[in-house]
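Appendix B. Extra example for self-study. Work through it before the problem class; the solution is given directly after the inputs so you can check yourself.
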Amino acid sequence: MPAESERTTRAFDRRAPLMLHPDVALRDEAFGALAYHYGNRRLVFLKSRQLVDIVRDLDAHESGEDAVRAHVAAGEIDRYCDALGGLVASEVLRGR
Amino acid sequence: MGADSTLRDRFERGLAAPICLTWELTWACNLACIHCLSSSGKRDPNELRTEEAASLIDEIAAMRIFYINIGGGEPTIRGDFFELVEHAVDRRVGVKFSTNGSRIDATRAARLAAMDYVDVQVSIDGADDATNDAVRGAGSFDTAIRAMGALADAGFENFKVSVVVTSENVGQLGSFEELASRYGAQLRLTRLRPSGRGVDSWDRLHPSQAQNRELYRWLLDHPNTLTGDSFFHLSALGDPLDGLNLCGAGRVVCLIDPIGDVYACPFVIHDEFRAGSIRDAGGFAAVWRDSALFRGLREPGSAGACASCGSYDACRGGCMAAKFFTGMPLDGPDPECVHGHGERAAATPVLLRPRASRDHSARVPAGSAAT
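Solution. C-alpha cells for the complete assembly:
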C-alpha cells in the first residue's frame, strides 16, 4: 500500500536539477496527484496542487529549489523543498 | 502510510479513478472454496468477449489506473488470459492476479517471470493440507505448493502467498510466513467476508474476538505483511494498522465482474451495490464517475449507532459488506466490532441474511457437509 510522500532525507541537494523518474506516472486528483512507480510498485500521494505544478515544471528549472520558488510564496519554500526531498527519497523524482 | 485524516477525508469523497480495481475475469473455477466471494464454479456464456475485455483495458489505461487486480473464479482458465495480461502490461497497466495455482506449471511460470508489471498471488487458506483442503477442497494445498515451487524455480521473485484469515488458520500465521519466505514470496493476509458462499461458512470460519486481538498484535509486529487495508476494523484496538483505514467502496475501490457489471467492491456482489455495466453507453468511466450508487457512497456518511463510540474515528464502523451480508444495518457496527457491539449479527439466522443475487456454483462446495 501507499508510502509516505514527505519523508525527509539527508542527502537531498535542493540546488540540484531534478526530473520525474522515468518509471513514474502521475494521475491528477482533486487533492493533488497520485504518483505510481512501476519499478518498486509503490503509490505515493502528492498532497497539494502546488506540489504537482512544481513537479510538472521541474524540467524548466535549473534546480528543485528554483522550481519551488517559481510556484510558492517565500514563507513556503523550505516546506516545499522538503516535500521534493521526500519525493526523491521515494524515487518519484531523481536528479537529471 | 499512517493515519492521515485530511487525505482520508478526500478519499472518502472519491477519486477520479479507482486505485484498487478488481476484475473477475471468469466465474469458471476448478475449485469450490466454501468462502468464495463470487460463488464461482461455472462459466457464464455472457462473459466479456476478448475484444470487449481488451477495450476495457484500453479504457483503464486511459483513466490512468496504474494496475488492476485480476481474479475469478480461476482467471487462468480463460483461453485468452495471457493475451489479456499482455494487452494490459503493453499499455502500462500492471496486473496482479490471484490463482489457485492449478495451471501454473513450469512453462507458464517462466512466461510470467519474463513479464514486467505482473504479480501473482497464490491462494492458500491453511499452512498444511488438512486445514487448507477443508476450505478449498481435496488436493488444493499440494496444487498451490507445486505452483509456488514452479514460480520460485522460474525466478519469479516476491510473488504473493495470499491467505484469508479464518478461525481455523489464525494460529498458523508464523507458519504461513515461513512457507512464503521458503519460496522467496511475501505473505498477504486478508479478511474473511460473509459474501458469496461465505454467507454459509461465516459463522464457522470468522475469527473470534480473542483471535482478532491475536491477529491485530501479529499485524503490528509484522508490518511488512500485506493486507490490502483489509483489517481496518481492528484499528479500534489501539494504534492504527498500516493503510488508509477506510472503506474504499465506490470511492477508491470497485469490482468489475465477468459479464462487465460494476459493483462497489469485491465483497458486495449484490444487486443493491451494482452501479452499472461497462457495456452501458459511456463505458466504465461513466459508471465510475456518474452512477447514483457511487455518488451516494461519496457523500459524507452518518456514524449511526456508532456515533457515541470513542473508537469510531479509528474503525469508521468497519466493513460495509460484512454488515450487509450478516443482516446488520450499514450505519451500525461491524459484526466483528472489537468492542462486541456487533455480536447481535450472530443472532440473525443465516436464512434471513441477504444472499448474492447470482450463484455460479458448479457443485457442492468443499467440506460443506461439515458446515
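Self-check: Chain B has a mean pLDDT of 93. If your reasoning did not lead you there, revisit section 3.
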